[in-house]
Amino acid sequence: MKDTRAHDEDGVIKPGAKLSGNDYVVVRLRDSDDPPGRILVVRNPTRCHHGYTICVECAESWELDHHVDYELTGGGRRLREALDIQPATGNAEPSEADSGEPGTDTADPSPVHP
Fold first, then answer.
1. Which of 5, 13, 32, 71 has the greatest number of CB atoms lying within 10 Å of its CB?
2. Which run of H or E residues covers position 39?
3. Whole-prediction pTM value?
4. How many Å apart are CA 112 and CA 114, to the nearest integer?
5. How many helices (H) and strands (E) does the chain have?
6. What domain range includes position 44?
7. Greatest extent of the chain over all pairs of C-alpha atoms, in Å
8. Per-run averaged pLDDT (10 residues), the chain, 114 residues
9. Which region ranges are annotated with the description Disordered (predicted)?
10. 2 assigned to some structural domain
């Protein structure tokens, strides 16, 4: 990311920057009643500096300590939509070797005769 008037090369927003609502999402600490105040630039995963900016890969980690106000900006709504469809693109089917429950083995249905 290059250094611009809005943010530095790591994606940290500069004080007084004028941003488009399509570029950022607003977050606030979960344990605080303070109004939203931290602004994160929404990036694609290959260009995200996880910890300074936010993307579909690191949004869940931001949500651990912060309330992410997706609905306040176009960038937030776009990120929320991407997060909502993300699990649908993965393989949700368990493999044949994995029943999904720990400690369960596939039993042979034929009776055992001595």
1. 13
2. strand 38-41
3. 0.64
4. 7
5. 2, 3
6. 24-88
7. 83
8. 62 71 86 76 90 92 92 94 78 47 48 52
9. 84-114
10. no
Query: The tokens 């949004």 sit on which residue?
Result: 59
In the prediction, which pLDDT does 63 show? 93
Structural domain includes residue 14:
no
Domain count within the chain: 1
Q: In this structure, is residue 70 part of a structural domain?
A: yes
Q: Which pLDDT value is given to residue 36?
A: 62
| 32, 64 contact by CB (below 8 A) | no
Q: For residue 108, what pLDDT is reported? A: 47
Provide the 10 A C-beta neighbour count for residue 24. 26
Q: How far is residue 86 CA from its own chain's centroid?
A: 10
Given this model, what pLDDT does residue 7 score?
67
Residue 7 lies in a domain: no
The reported pLDDT for the residue numbered 106 is: 47
